[in-house]
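Feature request, filed as a ticket because there's no other form

It would be nice if the structure record came with a short human-readable summary line next to the tokens. Right now we just get the raw output. Example of a typical job, pasted below so the devs can see what we mean:
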Amino acid sequence: MSIFIEIFLLIILAFVFIQDLKHRAIHISLPFLIGGIGVYIFFSRNQNPLMLLYNFLFLLVTFFFLYVYLAIKQKKKLNPFNFIGLGDVLFFLAIIPFFSITNYILYFITGMLFSIIFFSILQLTTKNKLVPLAGLLAFYLIILRFINYVKDFDFYDTQLI
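Raw output as currently delivered:
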């Protein structure tokens, strides 16, 4: 992969991180840029397109059960975007091409734990109740991409589970 594409991806991820921390929202074009780069990298490596579907289905099932849980908790039908931002959902969709299914699930779980820890620390300095989830996950992905570059450790091909 071209170093220029990798640098461009890291810059976009940094924009997501900074924007989400400052405004608790991200520009709608950023997840589309990330997704476009991911799709380009995915197909340039001749990966099986079925993997994209598996990751999408995992995300769909996860959000379905989140909706069911929240609806039961609130005891009524609800708008799920009152609980999770559209930018967060778009970010989860955008990063699908960067991981195999097992690593996507692992990224999802560890990214949530990373976000909880980082947000708990962030709460010490600010009283904003909104979690900058897309931004924190973008920062986490920057760390993983840096490891990928420095250690030549591919998070798509390597089975971590």
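Something like this underneath would help us a lot:
The radius of gyration is 16 Å.
The CA atoms of residues 17 and 125 lie 17 Å apart.
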